[in-house]
TrEMBL record:
PANTHER family: EXOSTOSIN FAMILY PROTEIN, EXOSTOSIN HEPARAN SULFATE GLYCOSYLTRANSFERASE -RELATED. Residues 110-416 form the Exostosin GT47 domain. It is a single-pass type II membrane protein. The keyword Mitochondrion does not apply. One of its GO terms (molecular function) is glycosyltransferase activity. It comes from the Eukaryota. Pfam families: Exostosin_GT47 (PF03016). GO terms for cellular component: Golgi membrane. Keywords: Glycosyltransferase, Golgi apparatus, Signal-anchor, Transferase, Transmembrane. The keyword Transferase applies. It is found in: Golgi apparatus membrane. This is Exostosin GT47 domain-containing protein.
Length: 500
């Protein structure tokens, strides 16, 4: 019949469709089988280790798995004139090749850090001492705070060191790399646990250890070459390392704040241009995204504060604030310390509050600020002299309210101010606080954009100035009026040369 295809023609026209269908079916079967088989991914595609943010738990793992790897004798190289000159020539030669000799030199390379292998009495022995005694909670400071809790919140020296000396296969940070040769280093890290030694050793024993550490470090060729300007020294507790600080004032100090009152640091010792502010290790657990979502409706307290109500120096503002705020509606102001019971009370209080009061203590800073941030509570900062960590990277105006001391103590002023903040602005700030919490968490392994990572990102901004002042100090004529040091008069405080 005209127009009707023959069986052979029909078979020919349908065969391509059949083949395509068969091919798709085969591909589906292969994909299914492939999905069942194990796949090989790059080792750094996904972190295999869950970040540990507990100092005690991380230290336990570190001492078991890392200490035996570094039990060999510490390397001590005497800083004779010839050795110092040879090291300087090598470092300058390598730096010149990197920057001048290579027109395609990548600007964003990671910072290269040489970590000193100091005798164990400065490092592992002190960590073991903490580990074996931290359960002794009867050991308190004069203000009633547990000594070991203070050590934990100032344990930045442990977190940075543990990351630097970890096997490269276990590290996640790309902002810093450890080098084995001093001549390749941009900076030198001194792994001395100043806070642990201050709190756990007898006074004279501690001072003797400080002197030994001073002599050991300042005898190194790299120190003699730069006068310590490219050396990093963790002194995160304001009482630690006090007896020998003046001999290491050129080094880059890792600090909790600047304390411009002069009560803890001598004039000429600490400056933002030279040193770096690091956050305290939070005392409280992180309130994660789920916790924050569940806590929004439970935050019925307008303003919360728990801590020592009477402090010295700049902390005298606390007594005035207590007198002004006590008994106010939707405000909780209570005495407390940092023990286990205090931790639970502070955590519960912060997670039920919209704003958390952060007044100055004996120093302008306290761990309370970072406790509030990880708890999702908006900090209200009443500390006129406070310097903040990572402020070159982070905008604190998005996560905290800043109130002058003179305004805060005026009758009714602070509560009136807080009540004028709109619900929409509060919710926005709470979301910002949640996003920023990661920047203040120390962990093992150290996380990208965590506290350790931001330390090195901030340090990168100082590096050119450090190298400039190191080179300049090597050629300026001694006793020259242009040779400015940290002992310069206050009249010259704006001179860039004096900081190094």
């Amino acid at each position: 019949m005209a127009g009707k295809p023959s069986p052979r023609t029909r078979s020919r026209s349908s065969s391509p469709i059949f083949l395509v269908t068969l091919s798709l079916l085969a591909l589906s079967i292969l994909f299914f089988l492939f999905s069942l088989s194990p796949r090989t991914l790059p080792s750094d595609a996904f972190p295999t280790l869950k970040p540990e943010t507990s100092f005690v738990a991380s230290l336990e793992h570190f001492l078991v798995h890392q200490a035996h790897k570094s039990s060999q004798a510490a390397r001590l190289v005497r800083g004779t004139d010839d050795v110092v000159t040879d090291l300087d020539d090598s470092m300058y030669g390598i730096e010149s090749k990197r920057v001048i000799g290579d027109p395609y030199f990548p600007v964003g390379m990671p910072i290269r850090v040489y970590v000193y292998e100091m005798p164990s009495k400065f490092t592992y022995d002190l960590l073991w001492l903490f580990r074996n005694t931290y359960r002794d909670t009867s050991n308190l400071t004069s203000n009633g705070s547990p000594v070991h809790r203070l050590i934990e919140q100032h344990s930045i020296d442990y977190w940075l060191w543990a990351d630097l000396i970890a096997p490269e296969s276990e590290r996640l940070l790309k902002s810093v790399v450890r080098v084995d040769r001093q001549e390749e280093a941009d900076l030198f890290y001194i792994p001395f646990f100043t806070t642990i030694s201050f709190f756990l050793l007898e006074k004279q024993q501690c001072k003797a250890l400080y002197r030994d550490a001073l002599n050991w470090v300042t005898d190194q060729p790299a120190w003699k070459r730069s006068g310590g300007r490219d050396h990093i020294l963790p002194v995160h507790h304001p009482w630690s390392f006090k007896s020998v600080r003046k001999f290491m004032k050129n080094a880059i100090w890792l600090l909790p704040d600047m304390d411009s009152t002069g009560n803890w640091y001598k004039p000429g010792q600490v400056f933002l241009e030279k040193d770096l502010i690091l956050p305290y290790v939070p005392n409280l657990d992180l309130c994660d995204a789920k916790c924050l979502e569940e806590s929004y409706s439970k935050r019925t307290t307008l303003l919360f504060f728990r801590g020592r109500l009477k402090r010295n120096a700049g902390g005298k503002i606390r007594a005035k604030l207590v007198a002004e705020l006590s008994g106010a509606r939707d405000v909780i102001i209570e005495e407390g310390t940092a023990g286990e019971g205090g931790k639970e009370a502070a955590q519960n209080g912060m997670r039920r509050s919209i704003f958390c009061l952060n007044p100055a203590g004996d120093t302008p800073s306290s761990a309370r600020l970072f406790d509030a941030i990880v708890s999702g509570c908006i900090p209200v900062i009443v500390s006129d002299e406070l310097e903040l960590p990572f402020e070159g990277i982070l905008d604190y105006r998005k996560i905290a309210l800043f109130v002058s001391s003179s305004d805060a103590v005026q009758p009714g002023w602070l509560l009136t101010f807080l009540k004028t903040v709109s619900p929409a602005h509060i919710r926005e700030m709470q979301q910002n606080v949640a996003k920023h919490a990661r920047h203040f968490l120390y962990s093992s392994p150290a996380q990208p954009l965590g506290a350790e990572d931001l330390v090195w990102r901030m340090m990168a901004g100082k590096l050119v100035s450090i190298k400039l002042h190191t080179r300049r100090s090597q050629r300026v004529v001694k006793q020259s009026r242009s040779l400015c040091t940290c002992d310069c008069q206050r009249a010259n405080m704006t001179s860039p040369g004096r900081f190094f």
